[in-house]
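In response to a reviewer's request, we include the raw inputs and outputs for one of the modeled complexes. The two entities were modeled together in a single run.
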Amino acid sequence: MAQGVWTVAEQRDGEIRKLTYEIVSEGRRLADAMGQELTVLLLGSNIREKASELGKYGADKVIVADDPRLEVYTTDAYVSVVAELAEAGEPAFLLFGASVQGKDLSARVSARLGVAVAQDCTEFSTEEGRLVAVRPIYAGKAYARVTFENSWPNMATARPNVMSIGEPDTSRSAEVVDGSFSLDDGALKTRVVERLKDESGKLDLTEADKIVSGGRGMKGPENYAILEELADQIGATVGASRSAVDAGWRPHSDQVGQTGKVVSPNLYIACGISGAIQHLAGMSTSKVIVAINKDPDAPIFQKADYGVVGDLFNVVPALKEAIIKMQ
Amino acid sequence: MNIIVCLKQVPDTETQIKIASDGKSIVSDDIKWVMNPYDEYGVEEALRLKEKFGGEVTVVGLGPKRVTETIRTALAMGADKGVLISEEALEGSDSTATAKAIGAAIKDLEYDLIFTGQRGVDDDSGVVGATIAEYLGIPQASIITKVEVAEDGKSVKVTRPVEGESLVIESSLPCVITAQKGLNEPRYASLPGIMKAKKKPLEEKTLADLGLDSSEFGESARKLKILELIPPPQREAGKIVEGETPEEKASELARLLREEAKVI
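The model returned the following structure tokens for the whole complex.
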């Protein structure tokens, strides 16, 4: 009988990423609701010492898979290890954060195990021992409440920046065990040959706590400088609407929206963005939305918590100044 | 190089999505159906590789008969053959079942590379590509913005943007690549292309043709069950920030963000 909540940690360069703490905290809540244990899988190389971090956030057990071939994520190696451990451990739930890696890994693990996976979920609960998940569809124009049938473990990924991280309890520690797995070199058909780091050093949009975003109203690429200045002041990452990206003003990786990135920051400041459905699809789970636009009828004002009707070329620099004054 | 491109039809992104009276599906009356935007990148990349290396591009689609139009669009863009997997028993299939049917259609074809879109803009799951790869026992490279096939045709280097960096990954062929925006600019079908497309072969397959048992497909076989569809969470109406001048509005906004919203 499938038992236990399992979550898969994500590490990069030996550091556990923030979204892992979100899914571990949520896993703890689900495990408590069902009176079961929370286990975290930690894959990497020379990664064992990080296991204690996971205990503080509620893991009862950490299964470590430590191997040089797991240092950098590859689908083949990680899927093989996670699937083998899951088949042996028979958890009820197997959860991941919905990062690029998490979605890639969970999709292939679900196929390997012959089960379904609910992707990019914003809410979890349980019903009679099964996972119930809520996830956006049609770019968030609707949400689906889903559950699983004949599908153990129930697999799901959680949208980053949505579920809250619990207070760490430094007195808590997890039992750390070494996972037993056999990784066949012949089965590893892909390898990372190069890593091209992002120059900006800013947080990726999907992980950013604050975003300042510009749309068609920016009128040209050089004007993004004023958004960069505001962003620097408040520790934000700069995003863009599809119009700006299609016009060549900003790179694809900056696009927020249905065919761009889905973001969920605490603060989203939309400058010169009218608020097309496709853009809203990418940022509607932001905690606080600010709109700055000179058109009082712009649809974005329907979704904004705070709206400023005005010329962004005046308002944005003034906002930066006002924030500096407040320090 | 023989390349297979999997595609699907989705509602145009302008569509107003309305939940139907059964509470579990959407109203489909006024929908304009288009090729899934991410699949377009797959078609385009396949055509570019064919232009470079020679070979054939086969497009595979699954769904009701109207999907034929979308397959024809890909043929008009320059693909050589189409396959439509269609029957009523497939309606309501989840990603697992969908991938199984597509995998079965592909497994007896000659292929060096398979493209899918990184996700469908209807279900937003992104699971079918990986599941097809698992079914066929080949590697996957998902969310890819650049493809470079080696001159000897035995391997491929792809680029995947992850948070804060881009990974260049080498994979053996054949493999499944799921296409991300930024991979290329899809071409428009030309008028001659549209005319030629009408004569290109487009086969239809049923589950029986693929040797599959229909009881494993459709609504009742779903492993991921939809309990209900609900409208998106409504945000409470916000406020328009007061002030006579931009400076006043900006000051007031800064104050609200710090004291009321507590986000800065």
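As requested, we also summarize the result in words. Chain A has a mean pLDDT of 95. Chain A has nine helices and 18 strands.
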